[in-house]
Amino acid sequence: MLICCIQVSATVYSQNISISEKNISIENLLDRIGRQSGHTFFYNSGLFKNYPLIKVSLKNVPLKEALTRILSSADLDFSVVNNTVVISRAAPKPLGEATGMKANMLVTGKITTKDGNALPGVTITAKGTGGKQVWISDTKGVYTALLTNGNTSLVFSYLGYLSKEVKITESRRLDITLEENNSQLDQVQVLAYTTTSKRLSTGNSYTITSEELAKSPVPNVLQMIQNKVPGLQIIQNTGQVGGSFNVKIRGINGFNNVDPLYIVDGVPYPAGGTNFNPNGTSGGLPTLGNNRNAGTLAQQGGNALNYLNPEDIESIDVLKDADATAIYGSRGAYGVILITTKKGSYNKNGDPSLNINLDRGLSVVGTFPELLGTSDYLMLRREALKNDGLAVGPADLDLNGTYPLDAETNWSKELTDYKAWSTRVNLRYSGGSELTSYSVSGSFNDQGNVLRSKGYNRDGGLKVDLSTNTKDKKFNVTVSTLFNSTVNTMLPYEFSGDAATLRAPNGPSYFKPDGSLNWISNANPYAYINTDYRGVTNNLLGNTTLLYKPVKGLTIKALVGYNLLTGNELRQVPTTVFAPTDITATAQANSASNVYNIRTWSFEPYASYITALGKRGNITAIAGATYQDKMIYQNQITGTGFVADARLNNPSAGTTVTTNFNKSLTRYMGYFGNLNYNWANKYIVNFSARYDGSTKFAPENRFGWFGSVGGTWIFSEEKLIKENLPFLSFGKLRASYGTTGGDGIPNYYYLATYSTGTPYLNNTVFTTSALANNTLHWESNKKQDYGISLGFLKDRILIDASYYKNKVSDQLIGQPLSNVTGFSSVTLNSPVLIQNTGLEFSLSSSNIRGKNFSWSTSAVMTLPKSKVISMPEQYLTPNFNYVLGKSVSNIKVFNYVGVNPQTGEYNYLNAAGVQGAYLTGLTVSDKNINIDLAPRYFGSVSNSFTYKSISLDFSVALASKMGSNFQGQLSFLPGYFDRNTTSWALDRRQKPGDETNVPKATTSFISSAFGMATFRQSSGAYERVTYARLQNLSLSYSLPKEYLKRLHVNNLRITLQGQNLLTISKYRDLDPENLSLISLPPLKVFNLGLNVTL
Amino acid sequence: MPTDRFATEGAYLNDNSTGAVLTGIFSTAAGSILYNGTSNTFETIGFRTALYADDLTQIQAASVNSIAATTSQFYLNGLTSTNSTQWITLYRQVYNCNLTIENIESHKSNLARYNQWMGEALFMRAFSYFDLVNLYGDVPLALNSDYAVTNFLPRAPKAQVYAQMAADLLRAESLLGEAYLDGLSATTPNRTRPNKFAAAALLARVYLYMENYAGAETEATKVITNSGLYQLPAPANVFLANSSETIWAIAPVTGSVVRDYYLYTTAPAVNATQVALANISPGTMSTTLLNSFETNDQRISNWTVLKTTTAAPVNGQFYYPAKYKSVVNGTEFLIQLRLAEQYLIRSEARLKQNNNVALAVQDLNIIRQRARPATPTNVLPDYPATISPEACMDAILKERRTELFSESGHRFYDLKRTGKVDAVMTVAAAAKGTTWASWKQIWPIPLNDVQLNPNLTQAPNYQ
Predict the structure, then answer these.
(1) A residues 25-84 near B, CB within 8 Å?
(2) How far apart (Å, rounded) are the C-alpha atoms in residues B404 and B293?
(3) Which of B38, B21, B323, B334 is nearest to B192 (CA)?
(4) Is the pTM of this model over 0.80?
(5) Interface pTM (ipTM) of the complex?
(6) Tens-digit pLDDT profile for residues B243-260
(7) Which of B100, B452, B457, B463 best probes binding to A when mutated, by most A CB atoms within 10 angstroms?
């Protein structure tokens, strides 16, 4: 031992020293002083070797004075830092020179942040000792290091801060200020009950921060992160505001196609699902949804994230592998999306800040089919009649003079090409002190409709956050409340279906000049435009976290969360929706009111303990419990038959009134534990376990164990690497394995149940609706994940690559049954085994980092693959599309072989290999072409340029998948009456022998409708859709500081943004993302924003 | 447990809750596409079989809209395995009955009105199987609710299914009382739940199809002789709700009216375009059906509606069945069993037993009598007791056609059971512009069911 360290155990310390001794060694004297004052002394063990015994007489002398008196005579110097006293020789000489050997040096001091806050836990390493000399700063940021190797350097390093290296030539006091490191490696990543960083994580998760989100001017956060997270596939089903999304983490993890679990500030959030399956797997909203009679799709209320203001979001963490998700036990199988909202913050000088964000935007439909003009349309029509050997007849209204031959309307644009203006206002006031911080923010958004039907979507929100600590910072209370109210008056119909938009371009308008409906032959596909809709959705999110740190290393935390999402809708279908000649109009007029709420509350108490274990290791242990309770309540009143439309505002006034009341409860209960061991930030292992239960299963199948193990080796910390590969600033290998469960089925499917139906002749009605299966239990998802992360040139280039392999068994599926059973399926755990594998890459590079100009690039890419790896022989597959060895998203289609040059018809090969037109007659067994609809790859490349105070950001999305093409979604062939098409049809076969891929024009219903029915199910209806899309573009200018000072403004920024501005693809007429003729394509958005911080 | 559902046990706790389960079976039938339906489709058994046989003509070939496209597959006798909604719906009805029968049996001690509930459930099961065998020939005989069993059933011989129907109906007849009751076992004017006579009437029909003529006569007689309950009202009143003609009917679901109104009778009434007419119903009464009526038959003026088109493409006159005419809920119920059919059953049963023409024409003439106008007096004369048995049989079939047209599949089933289907349909199909083959009298079943159940085979010649 080279160091003599006097530890004290007295409980009462005195500030002044009283000692009286005649013959005492300096060592003994210091020991006595230490006992009295509570100080620890550090000095080289040989320091007092040659000093004689001394005499002291001290009475109530302050420590410093006492030490001066004692040590000055002995030619010694000292320094006091908090409770530590370091003693060294007073007149330093180059020690090595003097002694001719390596001398010991003692260094002590305090480590703080730029703001002056103490930094505990900083690692201090003596350079060149091969990591043998390491010290850690204490809770007050104080450290003491004794260097035994002579002339050397100390390296101060702390997670999230830039390391500092100081050359040491002598014993001395050395105070250090560490600056925060903005390296992506050290950005905080939120996990279930802990946080980590890219550097230290053992699992696979991906974080998106609010700065990234701010680059997209769109109302739903899912649109913002589209294509930007490796492994996360998001498809916008419709461009309509408030629409639904298809969200999958690492592919379709089962036949059920379940959405991930969403957690907002620790509370499960009912996002996901569409209103078509309100009781669906992930709990979409039980909205009124679309009235099918109107014909087209609308998916309003399709995603509860529509009711969360993206401005309130601080970060989004997407958890993917078992290491990150196993702690969610029975529900982590499909991945987890953690959303953390913005909390209070304060700056050093304590001034509150006010941030104002104003946006004005414009949305228009992004893609229109290139419809034929009247002359081309009529030319095809005439040719069709000629092909069919027919003359223009009385039914050919477009040719026989009934429709003017020179009129031309683009019906698609007539209905959907409207400008939707939007206004967004966000205010945020925050401030506080070291102990208490707060934030209050308010928002107002107004979004118009791109459809002729108009209406708006307006929401206002208020968010209040408060966090307060006791003086000793041992106890913390954080309260966060968010309220958002949305009013939507957009009709739940899209009017973008083929019957509405592909009409004859010379056909008469279904609208009169004054905008009212024009009834032609008593039919009007836009009749539902006269409907009235109003939906109010309120979202209350509140949570309180209590945190107590009784002793060093131990944290006890309890989280209470509450989420109430309530909806209140009224839809009125007046008599004017029906033809004026329809005498049943008043009988058919109807209105419906729907009140629902989804209430979730959760309580999660847990404790974590961190302590050193081993020389350079520390261990963190977490144990806790979770209890969640979700209730869905719905009350619906539908009235049909109204004598006067004015009464429609009260559905209960209808001639016939039906009501529906439903209340349904799901509970989760679980216990979890997590153990993390970190050896010198070099080797990290992480274990998670969870025991939990879900009321979705019969009591005997309710509880189960889930767990994971993950490990990380940061090999760049190895001496060998450090010395030989200096350009490699970071290198890490990561692996994890574990199991999670999935319960993606509606509640109470294990029970045979009856429900109450509409009374029949005034008698109560009980009906049964599903087959029961009390053996239902969890789907099991075994996840493996391997990753490598590399950082080059001081982390200026970071590359991350992962490979994953998920095996899903015990799939909860609707097993098809022969209808003789009374049902077409029963829910059970299927023996099919599915495997999802994939590669995920991400890259970030700081290309240029100059004083005035900087340029950085980031890119992510995902290559997913799924496969049915085992299926019992003669297994009754839930869907004939599931084929052993093929993808889970495989579909089987007819073998399309092109247009027969002789007949001009689409031709196919049947199972026997016989070619024909097969208007009918092909069956499922002839579907022997397999098409995988899953993406082959998707990702994005983003660039950021900054020149002085101007910055330009843009992101390009790239994706490739198989999708249905425009012609594959048509109902009729070119030439059919009142069905326009696009320039695709101009390549039709005109005369026998023409080689083309477009059939001849025809007016025959049979060949047209039946021909298309077969074609739509054939390989001809699918093509590879590869596209690059300028997903977002953001140009911003911050006013220079000198102007700002004059304006008394801290920051002022003007931003011009665009979303979905440009798409490059061979895919024609439809949007390559949602691939749909009947749903609005994603909108094109332009936005002007002003951000001021006071 | 969500409030909109409760466990099976709770449904059989007492008579009132069990009654609600049975009401559920009837209301499901009321909302089912087989009889009434609530959606804008043309799927009722009455409509589809009439179109498939020779009673309806589709006035506009598979054009205009998807409904016409689908119905044309029935009209042109070109069914595929996708046209099998009847199969699916009928077996669901069978399942509901089986589940109920099992639970009524196991909860017998809870149930004072066991007889009524069991009788109703057995009746409905037999009623469902009647359409199944007549549309699909040999069919799987599912008699319990366990999907592990029913999922692998092979087709049972038709005779076995008929025997089961007869057994069920005999038992139902013995269990059910004479009065019409509701879901709380209170007497009601609504003839919408089977009583003893409804079971007898259906059994008479089943016996007739089984060629058990003595049985058919006996059962029909039980109904006919109960003149306190059953009479033949004037043609205009036959199809009104709870008419004295009604033995058992299915009421439309709350707020709706009998589907046949929408199928045939909806506006526009006069001078419509043919397109507009076809939009209302793709099927008008066929020439052969119209020609089978004698002049001045009251049933034409009371039970059909004439729609004329003056607009393009051609002037024309189109007759539609109009047995149900009301837009007011509760005015009419869809009659499944009525007295006139019992007379016709008995007439045929008597003829087939020892060629008793005299007795047979007696019953036949009762039907003709009602259809006879006050003036002129020379129309629809009584058949003399001296006609030949063959002529008598032809007269019975003619009378069945004119009396029961567009109802419950009677025409199609009659053609099949009397062996006339190939002769009649070959001519009818030619008129439709298609061709007939004998195998077409059996409808195809869903392809999925064949694929999912290795023991189940598709009807011959279908894919």
Answers:
(1) none
(2) 12
(3) B334
(4) no
(5) 0.91
(6) 999 999 999 887 788 888
(7) B452
